[in-house]
Amino acid sequence: DANVDQGTWAFMSIRLLEEPQRIHELVDDLEAVFWVLLFVALKRFARPETPFPTALLHQRPRDKEGRSIGGAEKQTYVSSALFRRVGVAGDVLHGLIRDCGEAWLIFYMSFMPFSDPPPSLLKMFAETAESVVSPSFWLEKFAGALAKLPEPDSNLNASRGDVGLSRNQATSSCMKRTAADAGADTCENPL
To answer: CB of 24 within 8 A of CB of 6?
Structure first.
């Protein structure tokens, strides 16, 4: 398959799954972070009544030539805004998934044909599409969610022998990076 070397199937962007010959771009990696976040959230923090959406991340149909194609389940998940109802514990995590999903929803809507859309809608699509492809947009979104988390109990951390940055130190460290640095580095030891 042409897209086998472009990433792990479950986390690949909708665009790469729908168009196996597409050139892998930074925006595909940024979208992959959303699918990894969703996967980990559902595996680790799902409420008991929340089923794991196996088809969403593991659907692997084939085209006429036998190549793996996909993206339909993910496209439906995003365009139907199902991420808004994801059953995970924690308001911060749920909010992060919702905010990320909203950004990808608007990004993909910006490619849809509309007959005579209002200028305000076109402006929102253009601004979001421009933001989504920027690592600093995502860095700010994730750092903002990290800043909303409660400070861990220092006694618990000491008893477990945890070493590392506090939430506030990690958030501050991430936020100090410039937009240019955001694409080149990741935050060191964010917790």
So the answer is: yes
List the one residue out of 149, 143, 151, 144 whose CA is nearest residue 186: 143
The H or E element that residue 6 is part of is none
8 φψ region: left (φ > 0), alpha (ψ -120 to 50), beta (else): beta
Q: Alpha-carbon distance 109 to 132, whole Å?
A: 13
Backbone angles phi, psi at 88, to 5 degrees: -120, 150
Cα–Cα distance for residue pair 47/27, rounded to 1 Å:
30
Residue whose structure tokens are 């994801």: 86
Contacts with 97 (C-beta within 8 Å, 6 or more apart), sequence order: 37, 38, 41, 83, 86, 88
pLDDT digits (tens, 9 = 90+) for 156-183: 544 444 444 444 544 444 444 433 444 4
**Is the entire prediction scored with pTM above 0.90?**
no
Q: Is the dihedral of CA 113, 34, 144, 148 positive or negative?
A: positive
Which CA distances in Å does 30 have to 4, 50, 91, 125, 190? 18, 26, 23, 18, 18
